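Quick question, first post here. What does this chain look like in 3D?
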Amino acid sequence: MKKLINWKLFFILLALSVMASVLVIPYQLAITSIQIKVSPLLVVLSAILNSLIIFAVAVFFGLFFSKKIGMGMPILEGILQKVNKTKEFKLMLPLSIGLGVFAGILIIALSIPFNRLIPEFQNMEVLAPVWKGFLASFYGGIAEEVLLRLFIVSLLVWITFKIKKSKDGNPTIFGIWLSIILVAILFGIGHLPATAQIAKLTVIVITRAVVLNGIGGVIFGWLYWKKGLESAIIAHFSADIVLHVITPFIISLI
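> Answer (accepted):
Ran it through. Tokens below.
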């Protein structure tokens, strides 16, 4: 009987996603007004339990649907099958880091005019120490990519694939781009609850969240499509390092 998914890959991604969900807690608390009224241990245990449930579903169906549409994690899958993927990794790494850094810089550049209109966002990154921003970067790179690209993009591409196939029996370019863009918009909308902790949700605030986060979503989605989830993870992590580590460090020195 053919396996539904690669179970070794499932447990690796699940463990990494849960770990990332715990690492982001200090950063989340630093940039919001939430006050902990229970034991920190309970907060961590709650995060572990919630993320186990969410990511068990996301990873399982992400691997299932990505396999159906010919996407996934080519490098890690190859390693698990004891195939040498060193050459592919070396070719993928500079592109992934480069596009991630580009995304981070572009987001910073576009955030300047938005932040001038929204006082609450001015110097927001300074609120979180650099080490907390570094830990949070693992959540963006791993957990968000597993949830958004591996699961939701794969699901939407599979749906469009069922509606219409290309001449060679693959997902259409239109269907793939539609899925990438829709998830990029959802990525921005998904930041609104956290944004609401910082500023009132006005049209400009919502537009800021969708545009700035959507930029990364499109870039990471393209990398997932063309190079695999590993590439999207590295790019997202690199972008978050620019946003949450390098930028606040430079601001603190000014």
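The chain has a mean pLDDT of 90.
The chain is about 80% helix and 0% strand.
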